[in-house]
Design a protein that fits this description.
With about 130 residues, the chain is mainly beta. The protein is built from 1 helix and 11 strands; from the N terminus they run βββββββββαββ.
């Protein structure tokens, strides 16, 4: 059984930091791109970041570039999202997703990734207070 389990969300003041984790089981980690998306109340799901497990290439949404950092631990089958300088507009439920067979040469697109994800976690909420 495939599982993606997010953790690390919580309440933080603006300017603060959080580190989210996405632990994957039941998949061959290196075969997947792992991406973080977020969804705020009343809004569509938005791409945040992605890492290609096989080669470590990373991608970021424009709203988080320079503030968030994605990384992976291939031994633990876990992807992390370090979020620094958080803003109230970062408040959302954060989801990780796994996309099988993605290769860097294909070029990452968050919208296509959203439609093509093979697996999703159940999300972890992040609230940033002003």
């Amino acid at each position: 059984e495939v599982q993606l389990v997010e953790s690390g969300g919580g309440l933080v003041q603006a300017g603060g930091s959080l580190r989210l984790s996405c632990a994957a089981s039941g998949i061959i980690f290196a075969d997947y791109a792992i991406a973080w998306y977020r969804q705020a109340p009343g809004k569509e799901r938005e791409g945040v970041s992605c890492i290609v497990s096989s080669d470590g290439n990373t991608y970021y949404g424009d709203s988080v570039k320079g503030r968030f950092t994605i990384s992976r631990d291939s031994v633990k089958n876990t992807v992390y999202l370090q979020m620094d300088n958080l803003k109230p507009e970062d408040t959302a439920v954060y989801y990780c997703g796994a996309l099988m067979g993605f290769r860097t040469e294909y070029g990452w697109d968050f919208a296509k990734g959203l439609d093509g994800m093979d697996y999703w976690g159940t999300g972890t909420p992040v609230t940033v207070s002003a």
